[in-house]
Amino acid sequence: MAFQWHAWLGRLQLKFRRQLPPNNSFKPNRFAVRLNSGVSTQTMRSFALILLVLFCGCSESEQVPQQTPQAPHVIIADYVHSAFGGKLLGTDRGEWTGELLFQDGTGGVERILHENVQGIVENHAGIFVFTGLHHMGTNVGYIYTITLTSNNDVVATRLGSIPGAPSDVIQHPDGTASFLVATEHYDLKGRAVYDCYELAGKLVKHSLGCLPPNSLGANNSFKPNPLRGSP
What we know:
Elements: H1 2-18, H2 30-35, H3 37-62, E1 79-83, E2 86-90, E3 100-103, E4 109-113, E5 117-123, E6 126-135, E7 138-148, E8 154-162, E9 166-171, E10 177-186, E11 192-200, E12 203-206
Antiparallel strand pairs: 1-2, 2-3, 3-4, 5-6, 6-7, 7-8, 9-10, 10-11, 11-12
Helix pairs in contact: 1-3
């Protein structure tokens, strides 16, 4: 742009000098301008127009916004399970609500559920996802079956509800999956009481095979009782 600017100025100065008298008697006063108004005024107008065009061109080029490339969306999953040539990705965000996603073999991602995922297991009867929330008086839990339709769509169908939010979902070698369910009861020390259940095929029932809640460690009130998770 600087080179073009100097080139325009050089050509205008040369044209203006050729129009001066041979004796070089030009004096920059208002009378000389009037005598040469037919040439000088037209030249000055052309010069002003060129400056305006150049100024507008520079301003537009400087105002072009620079596009910043967007960083790729990173999915941090709490639960990952290979299925249907891709992956099921589960997240638990508490009161902000997590989700179940399916990522196909090409990297494409679609949402299957908008709920907090607490575990994903697979047995001879299919793939099952545990969801739920236990927070501020809310205590809900569900189990879903995940299937692939004839149109290659991954869908979730609710198998049923459970008495409360599930946690500590563990699949055992025999294919069953044990899990804890938070109750609305507390022991004498104010600690939460949990019930123990298991999923065998598509059947949910009470169980003795649960481990103590991981979130409470050794200071919990859980005992593997077939009816209650506490004494």
